[in-house]
Amino acid sequence: MRRDSIFYKLFQQSPSLLFELLTNPPKNADEYRFDSVAVKEPKFEIDGVFLPPQNQSPGAVYFCEVQFQRDEKLYERVFAESSLYFYRNRHKFSDWQAVIIYPSRNIEQSDIYPHRNQLNGDQVHRIYLNELGDIRSLPVWVALMVLTTIDDEQASEEARYLLTRNQQEAPSPQNRAIIDLITTIMVYKFEGKSQREVEDMLGITLQETRVYREIKEEGIKEGREQGREQGREEGREEGREEGREEGEKSLILRLLTRRIGELPQQVRQRVESLSLEQLENLGEALLDFTSMADLDAWLSGLSDTPR
Fold first, then answer.
1. In the prediction, which pLDDT does 101 show?
2. Distance separating alpha carbons of residues 287 and 277, to the nearest angstrom
3. Cα–Cα distance list, 145 to 4, 263, 281 (Å)
4. Contact at 8 Å (CB) between 101 and 21?
């Protein structure tokens, strides 16, 4: 599940969401903007940086790390990144704070003794999503974070509840964003299910949501990049083309299965025989498929010119 991208979208939609998790948020929390930065030499990738408004005196910069897998050097990396970024931009900020978001305490690195001063002070905030309380009693944006952590059976029930709760509120641009984020979370969480199965689970039509198309386009782009990377590692032109084709083929078959259901063996073999260019074209076309008939029609329309 691509939780990094989900939390990126959450924070992008509502930068002040981070401060709802803190006991003592800055007074101007609503004025913060969210960004993602890379610190060079050495290159560090910081999940999220929350920057204070520029039209006021220097404020505190907040670093955020979303950690859903155990990393025994997480704090070493986070403090190195944060300190280096703060060092390079000292003139812009008066202080720095770090927020680490975990699904639960058992994901936290085991040896924290070297960092006892930071972790026991007021500069680093550790958030455990499973300890925030009943998902239905939480603010909706915080509830979306918790939704990424709960088991599949409960997730479908709580997603439907959040959709209903959202529909009962006064219409606003954020209503649409909330629907899109719930959809994103559930499509990623149930990656092996077809579009129709996810629709039945949520009680909505995914074609009506902008995010479903974006997820598929993101998957297509990712598959192409994986294919190119595989080819580059082989170090030969033939390997690059072969890697791209295999990556594209695997991705398209997976998206088709999720979109219209399990493919008959004959249809699967037909797709596997397509050229790289045809696979890329199919990747764009399948975003509009709703049934096996759409795929059959697309395949029938192909030119008989040899690959």
1. 96
2. 17
3. 11, 34, 35
4. yes
Q: Where are the domains of the chain?
A: 1-131, 134-204, 210-300
Rounded distance between C-alpha atoms, residue 28 and residue 19, angstroms = 10
Q: Is 120 exposed, middle or buried (0-12, 13-18, 19+ CB in 10 A)?
A: exposed
Q: Give the position of tokens 């990094």.
A: 4
What span, in angstroms and rounded, lies between the C-alpha atoms of 285 and 301? 12
Q: 3-class DSSP state for residue 16?
A: coil
What angle, rounded to 10 degrees, do the helices at 173-189 and 210-234 form? 50
Q: Which residue has the tokens 């690959």?
A: 307
User: What phi and psi, each to the nearest 5 degrees, are found at residue 232?
Assistant: -65, -40
Q: What is the pLDDT of residues 256-300, one digit of tens each?
A: 887 787 888 888 888 888 888 888 888 878 877 878 888 888 888
Q: Write out the two tokens for 185.
A: 């979370």
DSSP string, 198-226: HHHHHTS-GGG-HHHHHHHHHHHHHHHHH
Q: Write the CATH number of the domain with boundaries 1-131.
A: 3.40.1350
Regarding predicted confidence, which is higher, 216 or 109? 109
Q: What is the pLDDT of residue 148?
A: 93
Q: Distance (Å, rounded) from C-alpha 231 to C-alpha 245?
A: 9
